[in-house]
Amino acid sequence: MIYLDNHATTRCDPRVVDAMLPWFSEHYGNPHSGHPLGQEAKVAVEQAIESLAEDLGVPADSIVITSGATESNHLAILGACTHPRQKRRHIVTVTTEHPAVLDVFDVLEKQGFRVTRVPVAQDGEADAGVVDLNRLADAIDDDTALVSVMWANNEIGAIAPMAEIANLCHQSGALFHSDATQAVGRLSVDAKQVDVDLLSATAHKFYGPKGTGLLVVGNSNRRVRIRPLMVGGGQQHGLRSGTVNPAGTIGIATALRLCSQRISQNAERDRSIRDALWNSLNTAIEGIRLNGPAISGGSRLTGNLNFRLPNLQGQAWMAATTSIAFSSGSACSAAEAKPSHVLSALGLDDSQAGSSVRFGVGRFNSMDEIALASHQLIASYRSLME
Ligand SMILES: Cc1ncc(COP(=O)(O)O)c(C=O)c1O
I need a labelling partner for 103 at 20 to 30 A (CA). Which of 30, 41, 193, 367 fits? Predict the structure, then answer.
C-alpha cells in the first residue's frame, strides 16, 4: 500500500511513539496529583506545553490541550460566542470550512446568531478556493463577535491570507479564529505574528498521535475570553476540565518540534514529490483539470493535489487502484455520499465533484514510490477507459 492520503491523517512518526511510550505504564501518574509520580507527569506536561508555545509563538498559558481539532473548534467558537460578556450577535465564516466549523455555526444560528458565509474565488481563477477578501470585509460589521477562517483547506490546500484577515477582524473589534489543522506542522505558524486570537490544531495531521489536539486562546497582544464547555475538576485554567493526557501532550509537542525544525525543507520535499505525481498524471491523462489554487504560486499547500478526471468517477478509480491510498473528496466527510461542499463552493457541478480525487503527500513518501504510484494510477485509469 502506498499511502498518499496525508490530509486525512499521517503515520505517527516512530520518534513520537518512542517519546510517548514511557508515559503509559512506566510514568503513569496523574499530572494533577501531588505525589512524586504525579509531579513528574506534571513537569513533563508543562515542558511539552512550553515547547508547543515556543513553536507557535504564544505564551504557554494560552494553550489548552484537547482531544483534537473538532473539540478545539467547538471550544473556540461556542466558548467565545456564548461567553456572558460577549454581546455581539453576528458571526462570519467561509463556505469551504471543515464541517467541524460549519456545523458549529449552524448550532449558533439556531440559537439566534446572525451568520454570514463568505464565498471563495471560483474554479478557473488563479486563487480558486481562497476567500474573497472584499466580500469578507463587507461581511464584518460592528456586531460581529467572531470570524472563523481556516488557515489551509483540507481538500484543495488553499492557504488563507491570514494577516490581512486578522487586520480586518481587529479593525471591527471581532475575534479571529482559525482552524489551522492542515497548516500546523506544514507551514510556519506563528500565532502572534499573524495576530490570530483562537487557533485550533490536531496532532494526527503532523505525524503525531490521533486523539490529541490543542487550542490557542489569545496571544500576547490581546486577552480572549471563552466559556468552558466541560466543567468538573477545573484543569487547564478552568477552560477544559478532565485529566490532561501526558502521553498525548508529549506526543503532540514532539511531533510539532520535529516539523518545526525542518519546516521549509519538508515543504520543498513535499512539493517535489507532489509535482512529480502531478506532472506524470497530467501528461498521461488528457482532459485532467486541477481543482483549487494554481499548483505553483504560493496559495496552495505544497503536498496537496486535487483534480478532476474526464469521464470517470473518483470512487471508481479508487476501487480499481486499491494498492494506493487516496481519497475522493474529503475523508472527513466521506461518511456522507454527497458531493464535496468544498468543490461545490468552487462552482463545480455534481458530476465534476464526483470525478474529483485528492492526494496528500508527506514525510514518509519517496520519489521511487511516486513513480510506482503514477504508473499504477495511469494503468488502472487506462483499463477503466477501455
Ligand atoms: C481542517 C480540519 N479541521 C478539523 C478536522 C478534524 O480534526 P480531528 O480529527 O482532530 O477532530 C480535520 C480533519 O479531520 C480537518 O482537516
Answer: 193
pLDDT at 198 over 80: yes
| Residues in Cβ contact with 338 at an 8 Å cutoff, skipping those fewer than 6 apart | none
Question: Tell me: the pLDDT tens digits for 148-185?
Answer: 999 999 999 999 999 999 999 999 999 999 999 999 99
For ligand 1, is residue 332 a contact (CB within 6 Å)?
Answer: yes
10 Å CB burial of residue 69 (0-12, 13-18, 19+) is buried
Answer whether 69 contacts ligand 1 (Cβ < 6 A): yes
Q: What is the pLDDT of residues 287-315, one digit of tens each?
A: 999 999 999 888 999 999 999 999 899 99
Q: Is the dihedral of CA 72, 77, 82, 87 positive or negative?
A: positive
Ligand 1 in reach of 202 Cβ (< 6 A): yes
Atom 4 in ligand 1: residue holding the nearest Cα: 69
- CA dist 129 and 96 (Å) reads 8
Same domain, yes or no, for 74 and 213? yes
Please state the atom number of ligand 1 nearest to the C-alpha of residue 68.
10
Regarding whether 138 and 71 lie in a shared domain, the answer is yes
> Is there a single domain that holds both residue 175 and residue 219?
yes
Pocket test for ligand 1, best of 71, 73, 205 (most atoms within 8 A of CB): 205
Q: What is the CATH number of the domain that holds 378?
A: 3.90.1150.10
Our count of domains for the chain comes to 2
Q: In this structure, what CATH number is given to the domain that contains residue 63?
A: 3.40.640.10
pLDDT of residue 329: 63
- The pLDDT value recorded for residue 147 is 98
Chosen domain end from 220, 243, 260: 260
Q: Tell me the residue range of the domain where 295 lies.
A: 2-10+262-385
Residue whose Cα lies nearest atom 10 of ligand 1: it is 68
Task: For residue range 2-46, list pLDDT tens digits in order.
Answer: 999 999 999 999 999 999 999 999 999 999 999 999 999 999 999
From 260, 276, 308, give the residue that closes a domain.
Answer: 260
Q: Are 112 and 49 part of one and the same domain?
A: yes
pLDDT at residue 330 in the model: 44
Measure 84 CA to ligand 1 centroid, in angstroms: 28
For ligand 1, is residue 5 a contact (CB within 6 Å)? no
- What DSSP letter does each residue of 152-187 carry, written as one string? B-TTT-BBP-HHHHHHHHHHTT-EEEEE-TTTBTTB
332 is catalytic: yes
